[in-house]
Amino acid sequence: xxxxxxxxxxxxxxxxxxxxxxxxxxxxxxxxxxxxxxxxxxxxxxxxxxxxxxxxxxxxxxxxxxxxxxxxxxxxxxxxxxxxxxxxxxxxxxxxxxxxxxxxxxxxxxxxxxxxxxxxxxxxxxxxxxxxxxxxxxxxxxxxxxxxxxx
Length: 151
Fold this sequence. Notes:
This protein is an alpha+beta fold. 14% of the residues lie in helices and 30% in strands.
């Protein structure tokens, strides 16, 4: 009789919440600007602003406390990859921590770009912990959308 109670769970029963989470991740996987960091299960992830004009895509990433040499940016087809590592600060002895919220370690962000960009004209700058990427759109991407009259 106790097998029918909802709070009693058998060890071989499927984990419905975990399965739903996996299905949602798979659903969003191909969506532009999908954050693959969650799928990679890595410690921390920089915050991004992604914007688009008629001429280019612009991505701004907050990477406080990092140096340019610790950051790698690549573009594979329509997948922009930003990865790197923030070095861990050494703990001091005789110090009592009340909270530690700043993260260190490796990060990996991947974004599917919704348009084709000109890799050879792309620019990246890094100043004061902010990475700015300007990715000019290809000529194909700049074509105007024609309106179709509905009859």
